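Duplicate of #3305? Posting structure anyway:
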């Protein structure tokens, strides 16, 4: 019996398991710390910021705006560890470029230059690396940015998943804008640029043993052109964010907390493709928590909402834009959803992550 039990444990391979909601007082790093939810926020607040001390800026957001020589520049950095590194609709290469471009765009900046750093696992086939590198170059050209500096490191076999990429970007901020989470205000309209949950389901669809009835391709795309069209309306754009890790739920909660306002959304207004809804239903996932890579959420003054929505719908990446809710003075720091049955539910900040290694 002991030998049989040992063989069973070996076959199950428990070390590969990932807890979707790990204990928040864990003494070691767990996957949830990288999920963009409450555990990520606590890691920054209780470990990184105290360790950095006075050297840290209190903002520590996806991007920062700095004034250098009279110019307002946006600066951002991000790392990409998606598994697998090639998925329906994209690769880790275009994901890295578009993700950094979008962080700059969410500050109202026109992206200009990027850095690229590759962490390669020993034994990775050169043709796979070439495919990823070509995707980086193609995405950079499509976004109109230059790759101006970079680095390459190699780690031992078994200590990586082929290719990890770190990117940093700099962009010039439009002087007409003041876009930041703290500016979201009671009465603002909450607008999403299109279908949600697509990227997360696309990556999930090619994970081991998971097949869905219909093909879903990632929505990864550079959003600065869409943001520029929104700015050109002259509207008062208060806050923009691309809802990546943690999905819509994490983004809405972060902005509600930063602005000290409540957010009320209508679940019936959420643009969720049927294939995403079906996949989430089958797996017991909430589409609000599934990652996106080519969508944005905008908090816009109510008087300007229709004008911004119309401009978004004329752009290819905003054709399915929709107003999904409003900001309210009630329940500050909390997101509440009105259900199709007429009830309400609280949409909490996720603790860890539903889907590990999604970006």
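Output from current build:
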């Amino acid at each position: 019996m002991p030998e049989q039990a040992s063989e069973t444990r070996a076959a199950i391979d428990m070390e590969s398991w990932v807890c979707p909601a790990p204990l928040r007082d864990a003494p070691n790093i767990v996957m949830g710390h990288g999920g963009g939810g409450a555990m990520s926020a606590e890691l920054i607040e209780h470990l990184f910021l105290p360790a950095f001390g006075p050297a840290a800026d209190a903002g520590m957001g996806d991007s920062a705006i700095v004034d250098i020589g009279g110019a307002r520049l946006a600066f951002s950095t991000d790392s990409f560890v998606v598994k697998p590194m090639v998925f329906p609709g994209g690769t880790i290469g275009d994901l890295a470029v578009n993700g950094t471009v979008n962080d700059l765009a969410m500050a109202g900046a026109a992206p200009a230059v990027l850095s690229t750093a590759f962490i390669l696992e020993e034994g990775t086939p050169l043709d796979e690396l070439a495919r990823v590198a070509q995707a980086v170059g193609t995405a950079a050209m499509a976004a109109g940015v230059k790759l101006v500096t970079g680095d390459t490191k190699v780690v031992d076999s078994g200590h990586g998943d082929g290719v990890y990429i770190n990117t940093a970007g700099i962009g010039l901020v439009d002087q007409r804008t003041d876009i930041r989470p703290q500016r979201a205000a009671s009465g603002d309209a909450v607008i999403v640029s299109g279908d949600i949950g697509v990227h997360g389901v696309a990556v999930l669809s090619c994970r081991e043993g998971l097949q869905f009835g219909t093909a879903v391709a990632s929505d990864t795309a550079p959003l600065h052109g869409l943001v520029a069209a929104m700015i050109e309306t002259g509207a008062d754009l208060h806050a923009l964010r691309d809802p990546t890790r943690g999905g819509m739920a994490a983004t809405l909660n972060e902005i509600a907390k930063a602005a000290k306002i409540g957010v009320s959304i209508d679940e019936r207004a959420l643009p969720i493709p049927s294939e995403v809804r079906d996949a989430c239903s089958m797996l017991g996932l909430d589409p609000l928590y599934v990652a996106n890579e080519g969508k944005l959420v905008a908090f816009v003054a109510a008087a300007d909402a229709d004008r911004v929505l119309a401009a978004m719908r004329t752009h290819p990446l905003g054709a399915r834009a929709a107003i999904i809710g409003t900001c309210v003075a009630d329940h500050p720091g909390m997101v509440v959803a009105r259900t199709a049955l007429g009830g309400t539910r609280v949409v909490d900040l996720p603790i860890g992550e539903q889907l590990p290694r999604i970006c």
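Confirmed duplicate; merging threads. The two ends are 43 Å apart (CA to CA). The first helix runs from residue 2 to 12.
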